[in-house]
Amino acid sequence: MSNSKPNYFQRRTKHQGPRANERIRSLDVQVIGSDGANLGAMPLNKAIELARQEDLDLIEISPNTNPPVCKIMDMGKYKYDLQKKANQAKKKQKIVSLKEIKLRPGTETHDYNFKIKNAKKFISKGDKVKFTVKFKGREMQYTELGKELMNKIIDETKDIAKVESQPKFEGRQMVMIIQPI
Description:
It contains four helices and eight strands. The protein is α/β, with parallel strands linked by helices.
C-alpha cells in the first residue's frame, strides 16, 4: 500500500527571519543594490537573477510597502547583524526589581536605622522598595503607629526616592512602595 495521503499530524516548521529569494510573495519589488544604490522597481525573477549574479541573496527588508523593498546582500551577514542589534538592545535594558523590607509597629531604633540604610542602598542601585508593616493580634488597635512609621520612612528617603503607592492596608499589614527619583 503506497503512502499517498499526507501526514496530517506532521509538524510544520515556520521559517525564521525575513523572506528571501523564492520565498518573496510579491510579483514586483523595489530593489536596492549591494552597494546601497536604488535600482528601482522590477519583476521579482529579474531581481533574484541580479542577486545571483553577485553570489548574494535578495532579502525582503520592508514587506509592508507597495511594492516591497528588497536588498541584495548576504543572508548570513544580515541575520548576524540583526542578532547583534538585538543583543545590544538587551544589554542597554535596565531591569528594575522590587525589594521588600518588613517592619513591625514596635520596631526598635537600631533595627529601623539598619533597614532604612538597606533601603537607601537598594534605591541608589535603581530598585524599588516595598515597605510592609505587619500587625499581629492587638496591634491592630494601634494602626496610627504604622502610619507614623511610614511617614518617618517617607521623610528619611525624600531626598533620593519618591512614593509610588501611598501607604494602604492589605488585610493585617500596611504596604507602601517607593521608587528612585
